[in-house]
Design goal:
Blueprint lengths: L1 H4 L3 H7 L11 H11 L6 H7 L28 H5 L2 H11 L6 H13 L3 E5 L1 H10 L10 E9 L2 E7 L20 H14 L5 E7 L18 E6 L11 E7 L7 H21 L4 E4 L2 E7 H18 L31 E2 L2 E4 L4 E3 L2 H17 L4 H10 L2 H4 L11 H8 L3
Parallel strand pairs: 2-5
Antiparallel strand pairs: 1-6, 2-3, 4-8, 5-6, 7-8, 9-10, 10-11
Helix pairs in contact: 3-10, 13-15
């Protein structure tokens, strides 16, 4: 706790919400668990406290394998080259960002994130410079914004940040290749359990982190690359919109950074190792989604153990998205007739653990089509959104003649890791 109180204000807002268990990120406990379990990524906790870089080379985890593509190990631009275009790009943002049907929701959500401590603002351009100066950043006038635009997902609007158009992602490079789970791996786990204990019923649970990327602080010197431009509808007394561009300075990671995928995913990867080796919980994860599959006799203890570890570490989860126990089943409507633990929805696919069947819900299919159409209409697909969309479409990778379906999501993989 004392160490957290000594961090910069922007970091404290992300990691320190209170003094009780669950209200602060318990980095010391997490570090002890990492060391006790023999996990290789022992520098992550200290790096997270300092804040992680969103430009330049991704810091190594010492867990993932080497990046096989030479081009991804070299940056296309330097951070200084990107900053050299800052004034020109700011003028472009002022000129091109317009009011649209998503602007009011995106602005409202940005204000809510400000109130939760994930960002500061709204500012005008001079206000951004002043805020960066007050934060101790040298040459505070040198900053470049990311455009935040709305994407329709599951009948709601989600703000996405474009770190490709301003050149920030072009500075990214890495020596490791990210390795995360898939629908194919889930199916393989179920088949393995069925082989090991063919006469035992299986159960499953799932948890989803809340504002996952936002929970990882940005390095103080990198906040000049974490200024988000938003269109404020700015209605007058008569309700007539007088739109203007305003700016929020992020304390936690944005969804559109290439580096953010790596910087964030190191945490759930470490948690997986801790849960499996210290607490003997068979669990897996895909970015901010976590799940467990095991015999019905122990599935409840697996779930409660995981939720308690997550609570003690101060990792925020979405309680309304938890799956497994009886109290997570709707009282009425779709899904109200299912038995606890038996039909988890993982990566957009429902796994019936009694029938050993997998299916995608009609509403899920409609939501995916809607999201893809929204991306095509906007003409933008940030790296973070490409990563999530690929995860949602993973069912296509293992339901068509083995793994041949992977060809259909290859373009999303390329977009996830490319700089442009």
């Amino acid at each position: 706790m004392a160490r957290l109180r000594q961090l910069p204000k922007s970091h404290r807002k992300v990691l320190l919400r209170g003094s009780k268990f669950g209200e602060f990120f318990h980095w010391a406990l997490f570090q002890e668990m990492i060391e006790e379990s023999g996990y290789a990524d022992r520098e992550y906790m200290e790096q997270l406290l300092q804040g992680l870089n969103v430009t330049g080379r991704v810091l190594p985890s010492n867990v993932w394998g080497p990046e096989p593509v030479p081009e991804k190990r070299r940056p296309e631009k330097t951070a200084d080259e990107v900053l050299a275009t800052a004034w020109e790009y700011r003028a472009l943002v002022r000129r091109e960002m317009k009011l649209d049907q998503y602007s009011a929701t995106v602005y409202k959500d940005s204000i809510e994130e400000r109130d939760m401590g994930f960002c500061e603002g709204p500012f005008d351009e001079s206000g951004v410079t002043q805020h960066l100066a007050e934060s101790g950043i040298q040459d505070p006038e040198k900053w470049i914004p990311l455009r935040r635009f709305g994407v329709e997902q599951k009948s709601k609007i989600r703000g996405c940040d474009d770190a490709a158009a301003n050149g920030v992602n072009a500075t990214s490079c890495r020596d490791e290749k990210l390795a995360i789970s898939s629908v194919d791996a889930i199916a393989a786990t179920i088949r393995l359990w069925r082989k090991l204990v063919p006469d035992v019923r299986l159960g499953g649970w799932a948890l989803d982190e809340y504002k996952a990327y936002r929970q990882v602080p940005i390095a103080l010197s990198e906040r000049r690359f974490a200024v988000v431009a938003v269109t404020d509808p700015n209605p007058d007394r008569d309700g007539v919109a007088r739109p203007k561009v305003v700016y929020f300075v992020m304390n936690g990671h944005c969804f559109g950074y290439t580096n953010a995928v790596y910087n964030y995913c190191r945490r759930p990867r470490a948690l997986r190792h801790v849960l499996m080796h210290l607490f003997k919980v068979p669990t897996d994860d895909y970015v901010d989604d976590r799940w467990g599959l095991e015999p019905m006799g122990s599935i409840a203890s697996s779930y409660w153990c995981t939720t308690e570890v997550v609570r003690m570490l101060g990792i925020r989860v979405q309680d309304d998205k938890a799956q497994g126990p009886e109290d997570t089943i709707p009282k009425e409507g779709p899904g109200s007739d299912k038995e606890p633990w038996t039909r988890p929805e993982l990566l957009g696919v429902i796994f019936d653990l009694d029938k050993y069947e997998a299916q995608i819900k009609p509403k899920r299919r409609e939501a995916l089509v809607q999201e893809i159409n929204s991306i095509l209409a906007n003409g933008r697909l940030p790296a973070g959104q490409a990563s999530k969309l690929k995860g949602k479409l993973q069912f296509a990778c293992c339901t068509l003649f083995g793994r041949s379906g992977r060809a259909y999501v290859r373009a999303l993989s390329e977009r996830q890791y490319e700089h442009k």
